[in-house]
Amino acid sequence: MTTTQPPFATTGESSAAARATALTKVYGEGETRVVALDGIDVEFSRGQFTAIMGPSGSGKSTLMHCMAGLDAITSGSATIGDVELSRLKDKHLTRLRRDRIGFVFQSFNLVPTLTAIENITLTMDIAGRKPDSQWLDQIVDTVGLRDRLKHRPGQLSGGQQQRVACARALAGRPEIVFADEPTGNLDSRSGAEILSFLRESARSFGQTVVMVTHDAVAASYADRVLFLADGRLVDELVAPSADRVLERMKQFDGKGRTS
Ligand SMILES: Nc1ncnc2c1ncn2[C@@H]1O[C@H](COP(=O)(O)OP(=O)(O)OP(=O)(O)O)[C@@H](O)[C@H]1O
């Protein structure tokens, strides 16, 4: 069997793990036309943990979906490493998502019939990639799952399930991890563990992480917070505290516009 090099193999020279340039996303047309993203320019540097905040409908999920190749963009560009997503055919986009991007969802999205360790290595098993056992060990220990690896999701608490999902996201050493409200279904203690892990993965492992959240405390774990309103990037806080994030959020009115 011959294996072909994926078209998204890159030199690794780009300093940013991901980048949006004049990224625009329009849904519908005519009366139902919605400009969800309106010319976004943003860079996600390697090893940086970024939180995305903004009022409901401001475009947070759309930005994440477009950057992760889950939604097609209308104009501009979205790149992972040096790869322009809009140039990829579906098959290659699927492969890029599988091999280069890690996902953590609010609802964990684990396979109920598989054990924790089988869930963690599932993506690599599907890709036919052999997990790096030393790396796996390190992740499993960092998330504190060593004694739960043979448990199925139904035998784990929500926090433990989300730790499995985090380990799964990092297992293949992806270019970038996208986390969509990862603590939305967790109590504050379990949430804090997940957020500490995401922060630690950026600091200790150089993992690039982008997280959408509504929670100022969650955002304060990030290196920086981006604020969206009406599909535009309107502000950024570096080394945020929960108080500063809350203060900034108060400047949005109920319709999601900045005051
Ligand atoms: N599939 C779709 N079809 C049409 N409009 C959509 C679609 N997805 C999102 N939108 C619209 O795009 C805009 C941005 O939505 P998006 O879900 O990205 O916002 P959000 O900031 O993630 O909101 P929330 O905080 O409520 O999850 C909204 O006006 C939304 O109604």
TrEMBL record:
User: What keywords are assigned to this protein?
Assistant: ATP-binding, Nucleotide-binding, Transport
**Mind listing the GO molecular function terms for this protein?**
ATP binding; ATP hydrolysis activity; transmembrane transporter activity
UniProt-listed InterPro entries? AAA+_ATPase (IPR003593), ABC_transporter-like_ATP-bd (IPR003439), ABC_transpr_LolD-like (IPR015854), MacB-like_ATP-bd (IPR017911), P-loop_NTPase (IPR027417)
Q: Where on the tree of life does the source sit, at the highest rank?
A: Bacteria
Pfam families to which the protein is assigned, alphabetical: ABC_tran
Keyword Hydrolase assigned: no
Q: Which GO terms describe its cellular component?
A: membrane protein complex; plasma membrane
SMART domains (alphabetical): AAA
Residues annotated as domain ABC transporter:
18-255
Protein name from the UniProt record: Peptide ABC transporter ATP-binding protein
The organism named in the record is Mangrovactinospora gilvigrisea
List the top taxonomic levels of the source: Bacteria, Bacillati, Actinomycetota, Actinomycetes, Kitasatosporales
